[in-house]
Amino acid sequence: MTLPNKLQEIVDDFASMSREEKIETLIAYAESFPELPERFAEARAKMEPIAECMTPVYLFAEKADDDGMLFHFDIPKQSPTVRGLAAILANGLNGCQPEEVISIPADFYAPMNLEEAISGQRLNGFRGVLAHMKQAAVEALGR
């Protein structure tokens, strides 16, 4: 499986971590997670959260000037695990071309052994967020 370089680096880093290190790293990702840009505030009020997630997760996708994808999220600060998982996806996929995002396997994270640190329910949400990101990339190709 070939992943974009940034995402592969994240997968490799997590694969070598202990359970405790994975939790600490997810929290660090959550703490560095950027707030939703103000320009999306009005659209956010009209959106439904991603259904696969128990935590309200809102995804905003756009194409950059170089046609790379940019993903923005609105996730409550009280949900550091979810924010950390979304940050993994954003850090690993921001700037990628839509075709690259679409080609990411749903189980790309298997080598990370995240089940050591988080629940299966959180992993289902993680897969759901990736599926929505891929759908946004498909839509971006049609624009």
What structural keywords apply?
mainly alpha; 143 residues; Sufe protein. Chain: A; two-stranded antiparallel sheet
Short overview:
This protein has 143 residues and is mainly alpha-helical.
Question: Approximately what portion of the residues adopt beta-strand conformation?
Answer: 5-15%
Order of helices and strands: HHHEEHHH
CATH class: Alpha Beta
What strand line-up does the widest sheet have?
A: 1-2
Question: Using only CA atoms, what is the Rg?
Answer: 14 Å
Question: How many individual domains?
Answer: 1
The number of E-state strands comes to: 2
**How is the biggest beta sheet arranged?**
2 strands, antiparallel
Low-confidence regions: none
Oligomer: single chain
- Specify the overall morphology: globular
Number of helices: 6
SS class: mainly alpha
Second-tier CATH architecture: Alpha-Beta Complex
Share of helical residues: 40-55%
End-to-end distance, in Å?
Answer: 28 Å
CATH topology: Sufe protein. Chain: A
Q: Topology, pairings included?
A:
Blueprint: H1 5-15, H2 19-31, H3 41-44, E1 58-63, E2 69-74, H4 80-93, H5 98-102, H6 120-141
Antiparallel strand pairs: 1-2
Describe the structure in your own words.
With 143 residues, the chain is mainly α. The protein has one domain: Sufe protein. Chain: A (Alpha-Beta Complex), CATH 3.90.1010. The chain has helices at residues 5-15, 19-31, 41-44, 80-93, 98-102, 120-141, and strands spanning 58-63, 69-74. A two-stranded antiparallel sheet has the order 1-2. The two termini are 28 Å apart.
